[in-house]
Amino acid sequence: MSLKKPHQTFWSGYSAVALMVALSLIYLNLPVYAFALNKALLPKYFYFGLIPILVPVLLLKPKTFLTYLVSPFPLWAFVVILLNFIHILNPFNDSNMGVVDLVSTRIQVFVIAIFLGYILSVTRTETYERLFPILVAFISCAVILDFFSPGTLYPVGTEGSVLGRGAATFLNPTSAAEAMLIVFLMACTVVRMQYRMPLLMLTGIGIMVTFTRSGIIAWIFCWIFLLLKRLLPRSAVVFTFALLIAIPLLYGTFENYLSSRENSGESITNIQTRLEFFFNPNLQDDSAEERVKVLKAGWDLFVKNPVSGAGAGVTNFWLYKAGTHNQLVMLAAEYGVLGIALWASLAIILWRGKYFENKSLQFAIFCLFIFMSMFTHNMFDSPYWLVTFALMAGKRRRA
């Protein structure tokens, strides 16, 4: 058996540490969280700070890097970057610095995802994957803490946060729910069968106190899927029946607790409506009506500009307070038919990815992307989504 030379051992360890630092920053959303606490700490400072940490690894295997650049995810990402450059050069954008800043940031995040994707592709998977169970447990506990003790992790009323709903370092409850789902699935490769159920339950509690309907539904589907694929212990069946029995009790407990909170204010009505949705599904509440309205507006933009789209970033600076809440419609509205092609091609890349040895988990990530695309429009602006795409599009590295 061959032994590694000292310098090889050093750089292997360096790559692992650098990667875990980068993954922690991204999956805990720390750059955005730091900016929320101190406006002088721009998120780009953290992302740019990763570059000198990652460059030494890049310089070790320049030929490998060139090979990586022609693999599916980088090629797809380059198309997105090029498309954004074309849109940012649009004369219309000269008078709208908000659009320019947004698209420029989007390009930078894609570049970071490409570099990080390369580091992931040349680093043994086992050197960093043990971080995922720690991350999902930490995020879940932080979100639960944020719900039961508002103001502990950030001042109440911080821009981007939603009063009464847990979000922790993500500020946005939906983003927190997405991150927990993603990291939990990645943690399944590390966590032993008997420990997956407790971790799934902890993740579920964290997602529940975000009161994100799409996240809760996705968690329930994930539970059922893992159960059917025998990726959970047999005791999971007992837990499933216990949960079904406990749901009405949990519903009443949440309502009583929220009603007793003095600082919840108008958020109580919104949260109660979200809880009632699971007993009486309807689209009559303000949040659902707003989503239908912006969804239709996004589709109308596509119909009016089917070829080139209305322009990158336009759905962030329009007459409505929110974006399309739908990734596919957002891409269609901003980039036209090419935007739809980008969404479809990414789905294919994830489908054909080989990160998970268990094909069922790869399929779960593919389904999560498709499902959450229908409820969020921030995937291409969120580092944790893009890094996940880069990771899932590749394959496990053994040596």
Describe, in short, the structure shown.
The protein has 399 residues and is mostly helical.
What is the chain-wise order of helices and strands?
Answer: HHHHHHHHHHHHHHHHH
Shape estimate: globular
How many β strands by DSSP?
Answer: 0
Report helical residue fraction: 55-70%
In terms of DSSP E residues, the strand content is: under 5%
Distance between the termini: 13 Å
What's the overall average pLDDT, rounded? 85
Instruction: Please summarize the sheet with the most strands.
Output: none
The residue ranges in which pLDDT falls below 50 over 5 or more consecutive positions are: none
Q: Describe it for me?
A:
The protein is mostly helical. Helix 10 runs antiparallel to helix 16 (359-373). It has 17 helices and no strands. It is globular and about 60 Å long.
Key words describing this protein structure:
399 residues; mainly alpha; 17 helices
Sequence-ordered SSE layout with sheet pairings:
Layout: H1 6-27, H2 30-37, H3 43-60, H4 62-69, H5 72-88, H6 97-122, H7 131-148, H8 173-187, H9 193-208, H10 213-228, H11 236-260, H12 267-276, H13 286-304, H14 327-335, H15 337-352, H16 359-373, H17 383-393
